[in-house]
Design brief:
With 145 residues, this protein is an alpha+beta fold. It has a domain of 100 residues: Alpha-Beta Plaits (2-Layer Sandwich). Helices cover 21% and strands 17% of the residues. Strands 2-3-5 form a 3-stranded antiparallel β-sheet. A two-stranded antiparallel ribbon has the order 1-4. A hairpin with a 5-residue loop joins β2 and β3.
Length: 145
């Protein structure tokens, strides 16, 4: 009975004197992994047209069914999404929508500060998804003195 107690105390003492890894958020930001999956962003061509051709593959591949698309056609029969809605409250960040897109029209940015006060604010329309995510909290460095 004493040996397991000493083994447990050994683990406790090991971590008691180890370097702490606590970050003082939001003053200190965590280092994200290179392949971090954050907020979704729709990409555009250099001409400004949206890359999405409303093929519905992302909505079909989404296991959470959080993407809904309404397709429309231009006069030259090129399809585009008239409405593209993504519910981040239902999203499970699996990345299937990014992997299945044949035009690479959707990507997952590294934005991780996605907290909102209402669920309606977590529903992004096409205009919101075309904007790159911005840092919500700007940390100003205070001068000593």
């Amino acid at each position: 009975m004493i040996i397991p107690l000493l083994q447990g105390l050994k683990v406790t003492l090991k971590y008691l004197f180890a370097k702490k890894v606590t970050l003082q958020y939001p003053d200190e930001k965590p280092q994200l992994a290179r392949r971090w999956r954050g907020r979704h962003v729709l990409k555009t061509h250099a001409s400004g047209k949206i890359k999405c051709v409303a093929c519905m593959l992302c909505a079909t591949a989404c296991p959470a069914e959080c993407i809904s698309i309404v397709a429309a056609a231009e006069p030259d029969n090129r399809k585009y999404p008239e409405s593209y809605v993504l519910d981040m409250g239902r999203c499970i960040w699996c990345g299937h929508c990014v992997e299945v897109c044949p035009k690479e029209a959707i990507e997952m940015a590294t934005a991780y500060e996605l907290a909102e006060y209402t669920r309606e604010d977590l529903i992004y329309d096409k205009e919101a998804l075309l904007q790159s995510p911005q840092e919500r909290y700007v940390v100003e460095k205070r001068k000593a003195g």
